[in-house]
């Protein structure tokens, strides 16, 4: 199950677009989102809803960087770049081809270096280039997501550096990239194990078509490879979807640590087993309300609530809104 996206993170992401006069409200309505949710910090979005909003903004700007890059990027550029890159031999060649295309299409030059410690670092070649935060996020996430998709294997990031300040959103960036970023860095960069560079590209044009179908919402999905204790605990709890909630002792056993040590690790990451459980319930509820027609009373019972009223109170605590506000944003199946 995909993590939902906090509205405050999405709002910060599109802040530059609002300042430049893009009609984000129209894009939200076009994606079926209740405008009242936009101003609520606790509100959540699914990646599919985010995809709908960004695509609506593409329609407004006819620019895949939404008018925020050094130069306009015609719609369809990502698809053409993908068609070129999937015919490279390995990850090293794919990244090199991506960077050549970026220089030509966006005016943004990337470089890659591998050091003696076995770490590969890719980043913006010119440290004086100051990118809009949305462009920096989109390009970093895009390169990482596309690269791991190309080789069909996780690429665990060792570091991510952003040249802007978003410390108040650090937890969400950590969820998306799998590592806590460094903000206010001298340049945009990320690093990973250089041993991955010879990994072969395993995708074809049919695969690319399916990948693009989920774009750009794929940028907002949580990193698949769990690297924090909280992420590993969540992954274990989600795999046990049809059974009772696992206790601390069982979770610790599966992680090969003691229960007290597990609690200490979660506390150091600013969370707890109970909080993770609540986040899973919240995301399951939002997904069900947005994607299905299940009566709220039945949804409440399925999530373990003896009364619908208790579920409604919990949902309001999680999101700041009533379940009915999310039901009104339901994504209709074709």
From TrEMBL:
Keywords: DNA-binding, Transcription, Transcription regulation. One of its GO terms (molecular function) is DNA-binding transcription factor activity. Pfam families: Arabinose_bd, HTH_18. InterPro entries: AraC-type_N, Homeodomain-like_sf, HTH_AraC, Tscrpt_reg_AraC-type_HTH. GO terms for cellular component: cytosol. Signal peptide: none annotated. It comes from the Bacteria. Residues 231-329 form the HTH araC/xylS-type domain. PANTHER family: HTH-TYPE TRANSCRIPTIONAL REGULATOR GADX, HTH-TYPE TRANSCRIPTIONAL REGULATOR VQSM. This is AraC family transcriptional regulator. It comes from Nocardia ignorata.
């Amino acid at each position: 199950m995909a993590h939902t996206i906090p509205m405050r993170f999405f709002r910060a992401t599109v802040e530059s677009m609002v300042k430049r006069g893009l009609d984000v409200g129209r894009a939200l309505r076009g994606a079926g989102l209740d405008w009242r949710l936009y101003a609520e910090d606790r509100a959540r979005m699914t990646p599919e809803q985010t995809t709908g909003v960004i695509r609506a903004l593409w329609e407004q700007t006819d620019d895949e960087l939404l008018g925020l890059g050094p130069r306009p990027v015609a719609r369809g550029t990502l698809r053409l770049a993908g068609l070129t890159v999937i015919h490279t031999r390995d990850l090293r060649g794919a990244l090199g081809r991506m960077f050549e295309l970026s220089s030509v299409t966006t005016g943004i030059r990337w470089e890659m270096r591998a050091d003696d410690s076995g770490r590969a670092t890719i980043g913006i070649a010119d440290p004086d280039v100051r990118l809009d935060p949305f462009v920096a996020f989109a390009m970093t996430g895009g390169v990482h997501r596309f690269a791991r998709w190309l080789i069909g294997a996780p690429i665990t990031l060792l570091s991510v550096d952003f040249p802007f300040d978003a410390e108040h959103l650090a937890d969400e960036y950590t969820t998306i990239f799998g590592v806590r970023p460094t903000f206010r860095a001298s340049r945009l960069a990320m690093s990973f194990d250089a041993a991955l560079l010879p990994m072969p590209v395993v995708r074809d044009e049919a695969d690319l078509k399916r990948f693009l179908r989920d774009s750009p919402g794929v940028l907002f999905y949580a990193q698949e490879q769990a690297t924090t204790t909280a992420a590993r605990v969540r992954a274990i709890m989600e795999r046990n979807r049809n059974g009772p909630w696992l206790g601390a002792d069982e979770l610790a056993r599966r992680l090969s640590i003691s229960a007290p040590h597990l609690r200490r690790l979660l506390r150091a990451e600013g969370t707890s087993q109970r909080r993770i459980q609540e986040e899973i319930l919240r995301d399951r509820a939002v997904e069900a309300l947005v994607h299905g027609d299940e009566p709220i009373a039945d949804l409440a019972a399925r999530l373990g609530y003896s009364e619908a009223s208790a579920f409604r109170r919990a949902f309001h605590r999680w999101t700041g809104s009533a379940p009915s506000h999310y039901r009104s944003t339901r994504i209709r199946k074709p």
